[in-house]
Amino acid sequence: MGIAPLVDIVFLLLLFFAITYHFDIASGVQINLPKMTKTISSDNDENSITLIIDKSAQIYLEGKKIDIKTLQERLQGYVKEKGLIYLVLQADKDVSHGNVVQIMDLAKSAGVYSIIIAARWKAEGLQ
């Protein structure tokens, strides 16, 4: 009895975990996050929700497209349901600053506790 069956099982487990790994990115939404030089660690919390603004200023809340008119009431529903919530804001770097500020203001008025702005880490500095 050799080590070959053990190696086969290890490779199968590795393949299984690689295929079933869950990424926390909404499928089909392409965004280009702004770059930053320092990393900030954040814990995945069950009280956090993700809001994405793509290049064409379309809004996605938890991976589902939503218009700005219903965004505030949906956020208020999350606040009532979960209590203190943290909004992870992933805005494309080409979205206008005004759109991002409008969404942040709307979230704060809906009762969102904290807004975390997502960025992509780049070790060699900003470009």
Explain the layout of strands and helices.
Layout: H1 4-20, E1 35-36, E2 48-53, E3 59-61, E4 64-66, H2 68-82, E5 86-91, H3 97-109, E6 114-117, E7 120-121
Notes on the structure:
This protein is an alpha/beta fold. It has one domain: Nucleotidyltransferase, domain 5, CATH 3.30.420.270. It is built from 3 helices and 7 strands, in the order H-E-E-E-E-H-E-H-E-E. The protein has helices spanning 4-20, 68-82, 97-109, and strands at residues 35-36, 48-53, 59-61, 64-66, 86-91, 114-117, 120-121. Strands 4-3-2-5-6 form a 5-stranded mixed beta sheet. It has a two-stranded parallel sheet with strand order 1-7. Helix 3 (97-109) links the parallel strand 5 and strand 6 (114-117). The chain starts with a helix and ends in a 6-residue tail after the last strand.
Question: Which descriptors would you attach to this protein?
Answer:
127 residues; alpha/beta; Nucleotidyltransferase, domain 5; five-stranded mixed beta sheet; 35% helix
Strand fraction: 15-25%
From the N-terminal CA to the C-terminal CA, the straight-line distance is: 56 Å
Question: What is the domain total for the residues?
Answer: 1
Give the helices and strands as they follow along the chain: HEEEEHEHEE
Summarize the structure.
This protein is of the alpha/beta class and 127 residues long.
